[in-house]
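Notes from the 1:1 (GR / supervisor)

We went over the backlog. Supervisor wanted to see one worked example end to end before approving the batch request, so GR pasted a single chain during the call. The sequence is below; no edits were made to it. Supervisor asked that the structure be written out right there so they could see what the output format looks like.
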Amino acid sequence: FLTLSGGVIRETLTKHDIPFSIDQSNTSSRYLRNRLRANTLQSWKSDSDRDVLKGVEASRDQLEEVSQALDHWAVEIEGCNSFEKSIDLVVLKKLPRAMRRKIIVRWLRSKRLFPPTKTLNEVLDGLERGLSLKANLSPESSLSLNEKSIDIIRSRKFPSPTWPTHALPFVGRWSFPRTQTLKAEIREASAAEITRICSGGINQEVEAWINYASVIDGELFVRRRESGDLFQPLGSTGQKKLKDFMIDRKWSQIRKENCPIVVDRRGQILWVPGFPPAESAKLEASIARVIRLTYSGAAS
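Structure output shown during the call:
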């Protein structure tokens, strides 16, 4: 929404009979978006000899056009080559780096694998330098780059995932294979309710309340735990491996493997049922809009 003015937003809301309200968190300098809006954007506007927002909008549109073009090209390449089990480097090396990235990402996503940008960069760098490497994608899967192809290696120590990463909707409940359910809802919390939550008046085994403003683009995702996951629960002094938190609480292997992990778009953990929510998503007295997460499922 960076390129939409307040006037356009209000006009659209009025047209659809939606009341306009201001999120109280928008006045806090704690959040990057507010600092960019209040400081960076204003300086950018004053130092520029053109309409900054129109320039940003044009740049965004051009990037979307490039992405669509790459997708179109990727579909054509995939139609002429079989990438079912692996990616042939003879084909990949003929392509520019951006196209290589697009092909690899599309191939991995078709297998329900979502590698971080750092891993993708390492693979692309290795490809350009003629290196062989192995990169972990999840506890069950790793990517192998060799002189002929890129392959997925499935570990024999763990069963294949029974459910991949999914967006967590704000309507209805999400059901998992072992009968667990997870529900997310956006709410306007009263001051009394915020006080009760902050004072520990909830059962963290099955419920969490997080700051809506701390969630990137207002989108939540749910997945299983991954190797190297780091977590900083509310009240802790720093990040620690999620595996170690679970070991400290003497969780069984079954519970570890089947507990849903709620994350944001970047993959940062916001809540693990059984623990407080993340420190980065904590509530404050001035916050009104919150997300309530509720979980049901027998721990074993």
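Supervisor's comment: The radius of gyration is 22 Å.
Batch request approved.
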